[in-house]
């Protein structure tokens, strides 16, 4: 490929509306262009890297026994209603009607579609197991699209689905896919950590997320420094933190004008946060959920959802919903409150082990002091559950070791679905005794476009991207110092043709721009190797090979360039 023919419009200035490094560099280096909020066009450089990621995915999944198919993006509402997820999936689903007023959605995922497909074709245990996958665009109406390709409305995803006769078969498929994912991300050059996770709207039992460790990650993960335990903070198992037992003091109301946050109350009353309780109010569909944790802890929304058996993710309650159940924003505690059909109270386990703490008095500008939950809460009328987020102050639930916290980008997830969809959609097979049984399913997703962004988040410097060789748009760029010099261009073209014939993915920067511009673009785009052809080349018969990753420069005889390039690429 010649750079003069490459459509890669680079930018000299950092885009002001780009949130993270990957988005900034992909815009600057001419990889993507924003079309609307959460919608991007992939330009040739990005598409070359995307295709390389897809190639790695295909090789590993094919080796694991999966078979590639392609299903429609537009899905009929009937199958989603049959599974019970049409309403449960929430506002992220993009719904539409055709000219005959039939309901459809743009596929955010394909569990219903694949189950419907397979149930009409498989009817015997002899046809199992089967594992089918596709690489396709997915659509989710994100409330707040951000971070470029990491949270967009349209994205490229690989989704695979396995069907087995029993749980033992599912365990085998799960392990195969888990190992394939480990290989995929290693081959893409990512530093990834598989962590225990929540299955969310997909459902099922066991699930692991593959997290690319990066500061720009939206997910918090917790991991043990001694054993292999690692979990998304939403699924981490916090222990019960007990306070030193005290003599119970009399419940008392104190005036706290305008102190409607726990930090303001603690400051006004000169209390440490652990001697306060914090109220957060959610809504799950039409039910209002009051969640209570210690003032120094944070509420785990996923744990709250599980505690009340919610079918959809919690949302913050509106002022109207607070009024409906008689709550006063900023001054809430469970004291004197009772649950009802439209109102539930969920209290963290650690709160129940506190003594003489401060919490809302359920009226404006007032708080209780000396709350003792076991005495003052209607304990038969509340749900007690572990609903606080685990922290690095907790200990490992597996070995008791010290925990550490990191940021991660979720690039893949594997699920054990069990019979959730096969039972709902009637996907059965006849066993050896001729009896019908629901197929046992697994689901396995990889964010292909998100993997591209994650690689940049892990590999960059102040000058631009540093691509792992396996997913770089080009492996090598040849930069003649002066493209108007016929002798330099002849030497550059000879090297280019030799590398191309050897199967090296090489770009010749034949543009008439100054050398400094070409060098800056080479660093910005992130080619793993740069070959500089200069006047010194003609005199010494040597070129300079520069490794983007570490800046190492190596002078190499022209006759040895191919061998040296192949040697260096093996290390990148």
TrEMBL record:
It comes from the Bacteria. Its EC number is 6.1.1.15. It is found in: Cytoplasm. Its main location: cytoplasm. It catalyses: tRNA(Pro) + L-proline + ATP = L-prolyl-tRNA(Pro) + AMP + diphosphate. The keyword Transmembrane does not apply. The keyword Chaperone does not apply. One of its GO terms (molecular function) is proline-tRNA ligase activity. InterPro entries: aa-tRNA-synt_IIb, aa-tRNA-synth_II, aa-tRNA-synth_II/BPL/LPL, Anticodon-bd, Anticodon-bd_dom_sf, Pro-tRNA-ligase_IIa, Pro-tRNA-synth_IIa_bac-type, Pro-tRNA-Synthase_IIa_type1. Homodimer. Consists of three domains: the N-terminal catalytic domain, the editing domain and the C-terminal anticodon-binding domain. Catalyzes the attachment of proline to tRNA(Pro) in a two-step reaction: proline is first activated by ATP to form Pro-AMP and then transferred to the acceptor end of tRNA(Pro). As ProRS can inadvertently accommodate and process non-cognate amino acids such as alanine and cysteine, to avoid such errors it has two additional distinct editing activities against alanine. One activity is designated as 'pretransfer' editing and involves the tRNA(Pro)-independent hydrolysis of activated Ala-AMP. Belongs to the class-II aminoacyl-tRNA synthetase family. ProS type 1 subfamily. This is Proline--tRNA ligase. It comes from Veillonella absiana.
